[in-house]
Automatic annotation (TrEMBL):
<dbReference type="InterPro" id="IPR000182">
    <property type="entry name" value="GNAT_dom"/>
</dbReference>
<protein>
    <recommendedName>
        <fullName>N-acetyltransferase domain-containing protein</fullName>
    </recommendedName>
</protein>
<dbReference type="GO" id="GO:0016747">
    <property type="term" value="F:acyltransferase activity, transferring groups other than amino-acyl groups"/>
</dbReference>
<feature type="domain" description="N-acetyltransferase">
    <location>
        <begin position="28"/>
        <end position="169"/>
    </location>
</feature>
<dbReference type="InterPro" id="IPR016181">
    <property type="entry name" value="Acyl_CoA_acyltransferase"/>
</dbReference>
<dbReference type="Pfam" id="PF00583">
    <property type="entry name" value="Acetyltransf_1"/>
</dbReference>
């Protein structure tokens, strides 16, 4: 998706600053992933996404593991830590416009704590004013979170919603 297409799609959309209104009080940080994080990321993917994948296509464990392994690249994955312990992970492609939030997984014990909001806020800040795109399975209620954070529905596929957060002035 090029810059011209993003600008056409977002023309007239309100600019959003919703993320700045939310605060996370947990002591969290992001760090680069290493090969040693692969097992944690797989377990968390399975724990947080299995029900949604089952509802959409059915869960085929070996196929899901193969897809995960093919997509897992420590060079673009970051680990979310709370008090120095892994609590989530995200994968971002910042090589073009829009910046693409390809995956985010927060451990269930930290969901609804503001941690996911804080992490997404960091992605938006690092995008330095450029739009941020993501997609979410239609059966995943996280769409409501993304919309509260200023993402707007721009497209859909049979299985996913595509959302975009426009740049903030």
């Amino acid at each position: 998706m090029g810059l011209a297409r993003v600008e056409r799609m977002t023309r007239g959309m309100p600019e959003s600053n919703a993320i700045s209104e939310h605060r996370c009080t947990l002591p969290w940080s992001l760090r680069a992933a290493t090969e040693d994080d692969r097992a944690f990321c797989w377990r968390l993917h399975e724990e947080t996404m299995r029900a949604y994948v089952e509802a959409t296509w059915g869960w085929d464990g070996p196929d899901q593991r193969m897809r995960f392994e093919a997509a897992f690249d420590p060079a673009v994955v970051r680990i979310v830590e709370v008090n120095g312990r892994a609590a989530g992970w995200l994968k971002v492609d910042a090589s073009g416009v829009p910046v693409r939030l390809l995956s985010i997984a927060i451990a269930p014990c930290y969901q609804r704590s503001g941690l996911g909001t804080a992490v997404i806020g960091q992605v938006v800040r690092e995008a330095a004013g450029w739009p941020v795109w993501l997609q979410v399975l239609k059966v995943n209620p996280a769409r409501a979170l993304y919309e509260r954070l200023g993402f707007v529905l721009i497209d859909e596929t049979p299985t996913h919603w595509e959302l975009l957060r426009t740049r903030v002035g």
